[in-house]
Amino acid sequence: MDYFQLIDQRRSIRAFEAKPVEAEVLQRILEAANRAPSAGNLQAYEIYLVTSSALRLELARAALDQQFIAQAPAVMVFCAHPARSQPRYRQRGLRLYCIQDATIACAFAMLAASALGLGSVWVGAFDDDRVRRILGAPPDQIPVAILPIGYPAEQPGPAPRRSLDDLVHHL
């Protein structure tokens, strides 16, 4: 599948088959995330790969009880790591670049999962402190996105999008 087909066919999946994702497949997704561009190539983010069913259930509860997170056989949590970008970029690294780094890495992981025949959905609604505690992440890391990953048990249609005329401002 070429890149534009991948973009066109990717969907947010919230139902997963009860089938584990192979370790080598997860490794390929993590490698794709690791190739994401980042400010100054500092990679100011951390990825937590959660396969424990107990921890996935805790993450689901911390994410406004979104149970599909617990249903997914693998969950990646992307946390911004401000201390990696702050020394070089000061306040902008602290407040922005680390967040951008984590989001770009998550987007790369999401697209890699789709390219490998898996489903995922970006989850941004959660209690930061609870997620950090569940992961055992240090207090200076900022949870940015939870990405449940698994074999899709649904095939949703395309979501409506804004028209380019409404979205793009030609100058």
Which secondary structure elements does this structure contain, and how are they paired or packed?
Elements: H1 3-9, H2 23-34, E1 45-50, H3 53-62, H4 68-71, E2 74-80, H5 82-115, E3 119-120, H6 128-135, E4 142-150, H7 164-167
Kindly list the characteristics that best describe this protein.
alpha+beta; 46% helix; NADH Oxidase; 7 helices; four-stranded antiparallel sheet
Task: Explain how this protein is built.
- By secondary structure, the protein is α+β, with helices and mostly antiparallel strands.
- It has a single domain, classed as NADH Oxidase.
- The chain contains 7 helices and 4 strands.
- The chain has a 4-stranded antiparallel sheet, with helices on both faces.
- α2 crosses α5 and α3 packs antiparallel against α6.
- The longest helix is centred in the middle third of the chain and has 34 residues.
- The radius of gyration is 16 Å and the shape is globular.
- The mean pLDDT is 97.
Main sheet, how many strands, which sense, barrel? 4 strands, antiparallel
| Largest sheet, spatial ordering of strands | 1-2-4-3
Distance from N terminus to C terminus (CA atoms, Å) equals 34 Å
In CATH, the homologous superfamily goes by the name NADH Oxidase
Q: DSSP helix count?
A: 7
Low-confidence stretches: none
Element order, helices and strands?
A: HHEHHEHEHEH
Strand content: 5-15%
Q: What is the share of helical residues?
A: 40-55%
Number of strands: 4
The quaternary organization reads as single chain
CATH architecture field? 3-Layer(aba) Sandwich
CATH class categorisation? Alpha Beta
Stated plainly, the CATH topology is called NADH Oxidase
Give average pLDDT, whole number: 97
